[in-house]
Design brief:
mainly beta; 11-stranded parallel β-sheet
Length: 678
């Protein structure tokens, strides 16, 4: 019995010890598990806090770029890239759902080099620091064409300089959409110049495409500098010399970060408030009052609203289109105003008559110091950018930005007076080339040096109508006729149409000189430009005359003051005859053709709008052409079918001067190109 009791005690002791062991193990396990839970909880809290801090720091980067892209131009920080005006850490409240500030941001301009911005952002707890590098050079000057929609390139789009192709030379382009190749194209890409060619959408080809004269590798459309004759490994979405940059999209409420996506180049917008502030607001010398008017429905309807017939008699079908807007004459070389560095604005300043097409007196003013002119309404522009020194003796570069809340009409040529001068035309609606103001609109009836005009002035207005202006010139005589264009124009050539040049002399010679002028004097002054001359020697060719459908008069090296782009308001015809009888010349019309637009950037903001050409009064056989040496940015490609066969040829050439010396106030486009955590 006693032994049995002892045995039970031993069993209970063992059980107790076993229980204690189990409790100890369970306690240890519980403690470990509790510790793990606490550690995990702390880790989750830390990760969550770090994620929140990282998100705040990244949001600070996007906030900074958004501020840089959308700065309104308020004093004193007119230049958006100067925000916040120092290189210190500044606190900002970027999340309205939380009280107080959320991030520290530091913005350093021209770091790590010129044209770039270094942005650093920290969460408010200073746990996470992100560093971003952004480029603030406008992408518009890097391409001869930047199109913000799907587009098609047709036959003979690309070629070497002088090839006759639509886009010639090393002319990079950017398509923010799908591209369809048609016809035959030889795409010229020069890897040594750094010119990028980018297509952000899908590429399809229904024609024959070669690259630098070689066939592309079948099925690939990515261009690499290591193999410049082929496209390679790009899945058919884009090609360029370097990889696509990263960026953010701020079109919605919350900016979204992209890398290598179709939104890698932000399509810039015109902030009218900023440009209004830049010129000093309403009432300043470079703020032009006006209202935007969309007149595009009138451009291709002849006759229609805004169109007028040149001649009141005869069967002429010549029409002039006059859009609404204030005329601006760029007169950098001073030949029109007489003073270098002038810009004329037909706004009635100083009591002059506004919008009469004549710029006089105080309507002439010096170039704006900050290089910007703004109007909420439509504008009309032509002239010379830069002072070539022909008036002042010292050349001066000008880089000008002209902004319209409506449409900008280019009324005749735009030339550069110096290589480093440039012009940006930024329109909320359209940038439009008006080719209809080509024909002489009147004769200055008070300026006849010799009574020989045998037809009234209406006979020389517009296209040939069966009548000609006849100027009779007698032997050993001379005379000058002065013709008023009634609109300042810019050109380096003049055309005479339907010209008969003849003589009834027995033995003699006749000379006709064509001058461009800014005065109606009856003599040729040193400021007049000789655009060309025609001579005819008559040896026993009694009553015989010579007919010319067109005489194109270029600026001539015999001009007293040299050859340069020229603004003018009058044309002078000087006829000199030597012989034994009377001599004469007669012609129908005078044209000032649109031939060149140099160092100029067009920008049409509207997604469904573009730049356009208003067809002129030309026949298809005349085959006029003009060259655009600059950049065009458009929401949708303007189709040449709208221009009709009267304007069959436009050539784009790439202006490296425009990219290197851009106008000062292009739409801000700050693109993020790198992002890393410090």
């Amino acid at each position: 019995m006693l032994s049995k009791i002892k045995k039970n005690k031993n069993d209970r002791g063992v059980a107790l010890i076993f229980t204690l062991l189990i409790v100890t193990v369970l306690f240890t396990l519980s403690s470990f598990l509790i510790s793990k839970v606490l550690i995990n909880t702390r880790m989750v809290e830390k990760i969550s806090s770090e994620e929140e801090n990282y998100s705040l720091a990244k949001a600070g980067i996007l906030y900074a770029i958004d501020r840089l892209n959308n700065w309104s131009g308020e004093s004193p920080d007119y230049d958006s890239t100067d925000w916040p005006g120092n290189t210190n850490w500044n606190e900002y409240d970027i999340d309205s759902t939380h009280s107080g500030n959320d991030v520290y941001i530091k913005v350093i301009k021209d770091s790590p080099s010129s044209g770039f911005i270094t942005i650093e952002s920290q969460d408010i707890d200073k746990e996470i620091t992100l560093q971003a590098i952004a480029e603030y050079k406008s992408p518009l000057t890097e391409y001869v064409r930047i199109i913000g929609s799907d587009t098609t390139f047709g036959d003979n789009t690309f070629g070497d300089s002088g090839s006759g192709a639509l886009i010639q030379g090393n002319a990079p382009f950017c398509i923010l959409g799908n591209l369809t190749w048609q016809g035959t194209n030889n795409l010229i890409l020069n890897t040594t110049t750094g010119n990028n060619t980018v297509v952000y959408g899908d590429i399809s080809s229904t024609g024959t495409l070669t690259i630098n004269g070689n066939s592309p590798d079948a099925g690939y459309y990515y261009y690499t500098s290591s193999d410049p004759t082929y496209f390679d490994t790009g899945n058919g979405h884009y090609f360029d010399k370097t990889h696509l940059p990263s960026c953010y999209d701020y079109s919605g409420d919350n900016p979204i970060f992209y890398y290598g996506n179709p939104k890698s180049i932000i399509w810039p917008r015109i902030n009218e408030t900023r440009y209004s502030n830049l010129v000093g607001g309403s009432g300043s010398d470079y703020y032009i009052p006006g209202n935007p008017t969309d007149e595009s429905e009138c451009w291709y309807t002849i006759p229609g609203s805004g169109w007028s017939k040149d001649s009141p008699i005869g069967s002429t079908s010549s029409y002039t289109y006059t859009g609404t807007g204030t005329l601006i004459i760029l007169d950098g070389n001073g030949q029109t105003s007489g003073t270098a560095g002038q810009v004329g604005i037909d706004d009635g300043r100083g009591g002059e008559t506004a919008n009469d097409g004549i710029i006089t007196g105080s309507e002439w003013r010096t170039y704006p110091l900050n290089g910007v002119i703004y109007s909420p309404g439509n504008l009309k522009i032509c002239g010379v950018i830069g002072d070539d020194g022909s008036v002042s003796g010292t050349p001066h570069d000008y880089n000008l930005t002209i902004v319209s809340g409506g449409t900008i009409y280019i009324e005749s040529n735009i030339f550069k007076g110096t290589d480093n001068s440039s012009l940006a035309l930024l329109a909320k609606d359209y940038v439009t080339l008006n080719t209809t103001h080509r024909f002489m609109r009147g004769v200055d009836t008070n300026s006849f040096a010799f009574p020989g005009w045998s037809s009234p002035e209406e006979d020389i207005l517009g296209e040939p109508d069966g009548d000609q202006l006849r100027y009779a010139q007698f032997f050993f005589g001379w005379g000058i006729a002065v013709m008023d264009l009634e609109h300042p124009v810019t050109s380096d050539e003049i055309d005479l149409n339907n010209v008969d040049f003849g003589s009834v002399t027995l033995i003699g010679a006749d000379f006709m000189f064509v001058y461009a002028s800014n005065n109606d004097s009856l003599s040729i002054s040193s400021s007049d430009k000789l655009f060309g001359f025609l001579y005819d020697f008559d040896f026993l060719d009694l009553y015989e005359s010579t007919h010319y459908d067109k005489i194109r008069c270029f600026q001539d090296t015999y001009a007293p003051s040299g050859v340069d782009p020229f603004n003018f308001t009058h044309i002078k015809i000087e006829l000199i005859g030597f012989g034994l009888g009377p001599s004469w010349v007669r012609f129908d019309s005078v044209e000032v053709p649109l031939t060149h637009i140099e160092n100029t950037l067009f920008f049409a903001e509207g997604e469904d709008k573009s730049w356009a050409v208003i067809p002129g009064n030309l026949s298809a056989t005349e085959n006029y052409a003009f060259t655009i040496n600059g950049s065009i940015a458009e929401g949708a490609q303007e189709q040449t079918a709208n221009w009709s066969s009267k304007w069959p040829k436009i050539t784009y050439t790439y202006s490296s001067n425009l990219a290197n010396n851009p106008p000062p106030y292009l739409p801000t486009s700050v693109n993020l190109i790198s992002l890393r955590r410090d």
